[in-house]
Every structure is written in C-alpha cells, then in structure tokens.
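Researcher: Please predict.
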Amino acid sequence: MAKEKNTGPLQASEYIALAEFRYQLRRFLRHMEEEVREFGVNPQQYQLVLALKGLPKDQVPTISRLADRMQLNHNSMVELVDRCEERGLIRRGRTGTDRRQVNLSITPDGEALHRKLGSAARQELKNIGPELVDSVLHLTKRASKAASRTGKQKKATAKKAGA
C-alpha cells in the first residue's frame, strides 16, 4: 500500500512548528545525555540499554535488531555492545537452536541504571511534552487534511468513472 505524500511547500507556520519540534526533541535528548553522564555512562550506551529494555516482546533482542532500532550499522553496534558488556550493563547469550545467533539481555546493573534515569526522562517529558506534541500536531494536521481531500477526490473520480 503506497503512502500518500504531501509534497507541497511548507507554510511559514509549519517551518516554525518543525523548528520547535526539533528544538524540543533536542532539548530532551541533551537533558538525558547530561543525566546519563552524571552516572558515568556514555549516552549511546544508555540508549542501547533503553532500546533493549523497550524492545517489543515479540522481537528477538539480537545485535541486528537493535542496530536497526538505533539506526546504527552492524559494526558500530557490535562495538557499542562490547563497551556495554565491559561496563556490565548488558550480556550476550547464545540461543539453544542456532549457536550463531547472539541474544542480548540487560544485567542487574543495567536495570539499576534504568530505575535511576526513568524518572528523569518522565519528568523532562512532562516539562516539554506539550510543546513537542503541539508541534507534531501542527505539522501532521495539514498533511492529514490533504490526504483526506486526496482520498475523497479519488473516490469521487472513481464514482464518476463507474457511473
């Protein structure tokens, strides 16, 4: 199924909303990077542990899967996993059926890091969340209206062709 694209130019208010979205997103990420560093952990290491913790239950926690979730290439992910394993945040394990496949799991130290940082993330999202949501809604509202109009136009054209 092809996705509808809104290829028209952005309006001035949409540029403002896009800039606001990026600002709020970056503000959240920077806040969390600073929080993580206070615990002596590299932000990417925390992101890996978070990606592992937040992986949907039906997905196997492999290096490839997490590389995709973090948008890293496989080699970079292997290096990051190595560093996290050295810090005691995650561990590798082999599956019983395919000894080549490596599954990752969070160690108790990794879980402790989550407990410490989870409330900081939630509080920062409470602070910036409304602005973040408003900017996304502003950007997607116009696109949704355009897609709705396009869908209605297609139905009307099909109806005329069938009549």
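Model: The CA atoms of residues 27 and 151 lie 37 Å apart.
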